[in-house]
Amino acid sequence: MKHLFNLILAFMMLLFMACQDDFIDLAPPASITDELYYTEAEHFLTGSNTFYNYLMDWTDQGVYSDHGSDLIGYTEASTMQDYGRGDAQAPESDDDYDDAYTAIRDINLLLFRAQSYEGSDIGQYVSGAYFHRAYQYWTLVQKFGGVTLVLEPLTEISEELNAPRNSRYEVIDQIIIDLDDAISGLPNEADIAANDKAKISKEAAMALKAEVLLHEATWMKYVGTTTDGDGVSEGAGSAGEDPSAINRYLQEAISLTKSIMDGATFELWDYNTDLDNLSSNFLFNLEDGGSNPAGLDKSTNKEFIFYGKYDFIFRQARTLVSHVYQGRTKPSRKMIDLFLCRDGLSIDKSPLFLGYSETQDEFQDRDYRMSAYFTYHQLLGEIPQTGDVLLDGTNNNGYFNSKFMSWNWGAVNAHRATRTESYDLPFIRLAEVYLWYAEALYELNGSLTDAEMDESINLVKIRAGLPPISNAFLAENDMDILTEIRRERTIELFAESSTRYTDLRRWGIAEAELGKTIFGAVIEGTAYENDVTLYDPAKYGFPEEATETGVGQRKCLVVQPSSVRNFARHNYLFPLPTSQTSLNPNLKQNPGY
What we know:
Layout: H1 2-17, H2 41-50, H3 61-64, H4 79-84, H5 95-116, H6 123-144, H7 168-185, H8 202-222, H9 245-262, H10 279-282, E1 304-308, H11 321-328, H12 333-338, H13 368-374, E2 425-429, H14 430-445, H15 450-454, H16 457-463, H17 471-476, H18 481-492, H19 499-506, H20 510-514, E3 518-522, E4 545-549, E5 552-560, H21 578-583
């Protein structure tokens, strides 16, 4: 029945994914079976379109948006909040696990039937299926580590039903094989018709492969086998682990990202001149011409490489997007203090930084993204003044969030009501490719040339209103390129694709960073101090604590203290659902659970 449901759902997806290719000769739903399907080219088209349903969507924003990370000043109970502070237990079921294998089952069926199909060309659909299988296994590896590889449709006697887990290294090898098959047969982005945009391109497969390679190279370098378990009593083991692959992975990640960068198909969405330096806000709520004051629509966006497609007529979010991003994605003290001043220097070094005395002070002469992300969405870009932000409750820790919120949401002149938001959901975009390229170069060589900075990280900085960096600039200001690459990833990709969780773990620093106190607004030496009309300490559950700020040690609002944050190395992986380990005793639970 699950497969039947997916086949029917596929035709709904075709309304907006490939209206011109609707399959007409459909057998009555009651007679659709695995044996009847995939006998015509149209079946492969329909089936391949179905797989887009299995991508992350807006209902997953609690995971997608890094809720519970050290960058978010919201800590109310939820699965991701629990996980972020190291309070995770093995659940009875896990939708991410179940849904991935449901998708893999359907993908495997298409690939299996393609082997014996003798009709017209279905190569593009098969290549797309390889991409989607790689994507599903990639989501499983990132969350659980090694999992059981299933590469053919299962039957009631399939050995995989009782098989042990493959190691993460074996699964990664298969992901790479699948992505190579995808790359070889997918069309270039430039050859995809306008009404088919968001279908997987060759560049999307190249970008995903680059992500996998960089992730695994840094995981092997900084985490190693510490989360694998022995594969006998716990975990998936380390079969196939090969540290000698690190440099090879990095070299190929550089080659893939450079190819995308040099292809000139994609470009940063930079309309700062038209949007009062708010490109980094409106890129993420871009719909039709009414979604922003410059009248720009999605046709102007050539930055997204791999993304989920939405449309106000055919596919709205149908969930609380703006509402959730307003309330649950407000930044922490750490996030705010990461933004550089316009001279390219950190706030503890720049003469431009005005401190925190008045609410508006810390926003002056900073990276454009600070105002684009963290000013009130109905007054977007207008720096809050003293008295505008009242510290009067646990979900108000000193800052707003506007990223991924519809323009003027909640106002009389709002562009979209909640649940009707229809902006596309980015998984990989060009800015991230630039930063992957820079990071892979550093991890391989320990440095970047000025020219390499100019073709990567500096392009991201320039859009943010920052000066380009060079080796001389870094040396003169006692800065280092690795810190700047990691800073740019943290800021540019805030609240996207769980990037922060992914980065902290693959860099091997998650237990250190996620174990720290999460702070909000600076209290000491500011307008909040001793003014109960602006700040009521009784409304907060924890007393203020001192932490390092741009002006030295200052007492700040405590959102959640380190005493309740116990993220450990075993939390780098989630536990397998107990329903699966009970059904198959050969599935060994991850260490620590």
